[in-house]
TrEMBL record:
UniProt-listed Gene3D superfamilies: 3.30.70.330
Annotated keywords: mRNA processing, mRNA splicing, mRNA transport, Nucleus, RNA-binding, Transport
Designated name of the protein: Nuclear cap-binding protein subunit 2
Residue ranges annotated for the RRM domain, each copy included: 35-113
Cited CDD domains: RRM_NCBP2 (cd12240)
UniProt region (Disordered), positions on chain: 134-204
Family: Belongs to the RRM NCBP2 family.
Subcellular location: Nucleus
Low complexity bias spans: 185-195
Pfam families membership: RRM_1 (PF00076)
PANTHER family listed in its UniProt record: 20 KD NUCLEAR CAP BINDING PROTEIN (PTHR18847), NUCLEAR CAP-BINDING PROTEIN SUBUNIT 2 (PTHR18847:SF0)
Length: 204
């Protein structure tokens, strides 16, 4: 008898826990039966209730572990979601990944499993490392970066995205410089014209 339902396979995860000690084969084996998800890129103001309500549309949620700033224990834009079954976790990745929540596109990936301590950020300021190297203002994730003295070329993550961000920042700086030079040339030209034209000279 042929199968009516096709088994849903998870998409290849993009997130990887850098503290994972096992081999790649061990990691893939754990992911193949995992019921835990890593959720990232949401706003600091997104609540646990919102996460629970959204992920419950796929299946019954066992628990939600909100990511916290290591220093002040405030939310810092990521969490772990646990289902009761691996199938629901896979469906969630396939159906809800890249969905918009609080006007932000969130990322969802299978995770090898939550361990106590992973709910805290690993950055120098207590939050996520990615927020310490941001070169633009993000009101949903604390504004500007919290580590402005760190050189941009040492930031982790995708190099193409990092280079694009640097180019965008450079273009904005160049535009400001060009505007300043234009204003200075205009002011100099205007002042020079006033000096040459007696009608604009101040009367003694």
């Amino acid at each position: 008898m042929s199968h009516i339902f096709q088994k849903i396979e998870p998409k290849k995860p993009k997130y990887q826990d850098r503290s994972y000690k096992g081999t790649q084969e061990q990691r893939q084996k754990e992911l193949s039966k995992s019921y835990t998800l890593y959720v990232g890129n949401f706003s600091f103001y997104t609540t646990e209730e919102q996460i629970y309500e959204l992920f419950s549309t796929v299946g019954e949620v066992k628990r939600v572990i909100m990511g916290l700033n290591r220093n002040n224990k405030s939310p810092c834009g990521f969490c772990f979601v646990e289902y009761y079954t691996h199938e629901n976790a896979v469906k969630c990745v396939n159906w809800l990944n890249k969905i918009r929540l609080d006007d932000r596109i969130i990322s969802i990936d299978l995770d090898t499993g939550f361990i106590e301590g992973r709910q805290f950020g690993r950055g120098k300021a207590g939050g996520q490392v990615r927020d310490e190297f941001r070169t633009y203002y993000d009101p949903g994730r604390g504004g500007y970066n919290t580590n402005k003295d760190q050189p941009l070329n040492k930031s982790p993550g995708n190099s193409k995205r990092r280079n694009y961000t640097q180019r965008r920042y450079n273009r904005s700086q160049n535009r400001n410089d060009n505007n300043n030079r234009h204003n200075n040339r205009y002011n100099n030209r205007y002042n020079s014209y006033n000096e040459r034209n007696p009608r604009f000279r101040d009367e003694d």
